[in-house]
Amino acid sequence: MATNIDTVNDTGTVLRTENLNVYYGKFLALQNIWLDIPKNRVTAFIGPSGCGKSTLLRCYNRLNDLIESFRAEGQVYFYDKNLYAPDIDAVEVRRRIGMVFQRPNPFPKSIYDNITFGAKINGYKGNFDELVERSLRQAALWDEVKDKLRQSGSSLSGGQQQRLCIARAIATQPEVILMDEPCSALDPISTLRVEELIHELKELYTIVIVTHNMQQAARVSDKTAFFNVRTSEGGRTGYLVEYDSTEVIFNNPKQEDTRDYVSGRFG
Fold first, then answer.
1. Angle at Cα 249 formed by Cα 245 and Cα 253, nearest 5°?
2. 210 part of a folded domain
3. Rounded Cα distance, 258 and 47, in Å
4. pLDDT digits 0-9 by tens, 186-217
5. Is residue 2 part of a domain?
6. What is the CATH number of the domain that holds 53?
7. Fewest Cβ atoms closer than 10 Å to its Cβ: which of 123, 148, 163, 216?
8. pTM score > 0.70 for this model?
C-alpha cells in the first residue's frame, strides 16, 4: 500500500535533493545535486542547453519514471518523504506536484472538462462548477472564458491555452507547480501575463521554473540555480554551479562561470 505523502515539516523547505545523480542507461545526465526549494517562493533554473535543468525538474514529480532507461541515485524529498522510496505512489506525487510544459497542451476537450479531468481521476467530491471557476480565476483566465466554458480548449489563443494548462494544474490542488519554459512558445504580451500570474500564484504555491530567458528569471524568481555542463567521452553531464537569491546570482555571483553566463559571455 502506498505511503501517504502529506507529512509536513516546519523548515520552510518543500523539495530537497541530496547527492542526486541521474542516469539514462549508462549516461550520467546530472551529477551530485544538492538543492533546497523554499516554500511559497519562485525558484528559477538557468543554464545552457543540455545542463539537466528539465531533467531535474522532472525528478520532482517523477515524470522521468516514464523513460525506460532512467535511473536516480541519491534522495529527492517532498517535505520529509523520499519521493523515490518504493512505497511512494508516483501518481499521488504528480497530483501534489503539478507540471506546466513548454508548449500549451490542452486536452482535446472543452475548457470546462480540461479543468475537471484530473480532479475526477483523483476522486474530487466537491462542486465542479466552483472548482472550474476558482481554478480559472487563479489562472487569471475566468473573465476571458466564463461565457464559453463548453468550447474546446484548443480554440483559445496560445497565451490563453497556457493559462488554461496552469488552471488545469491548479485544479488538482497541488502544493508545488513546476514550469518547464512556460513562455518560450508565447508572444511578449502573453509572456507578461504569465509572469504576472506567477507572481500572484506564489502566495498559494511553491513554483519552480526552467527558463532560458535571463531577464525572465530576474523578473519572476526569488532564488536562482545556475547549472552548467561538462563534456567528456561519456557525453554531457550537468551539474549545479551556484544557487542563491536571484539578486546575488545576477548582481554579485560568487562563481566566475555564473558571472560569465548571466552577463551573456557564453550560453
1. 125
2. yes
3. 9
4. 999 999 999 999 999 999 999 999 999 999 99
5. no
6. 3.40.50.300
7. 123
8. yes
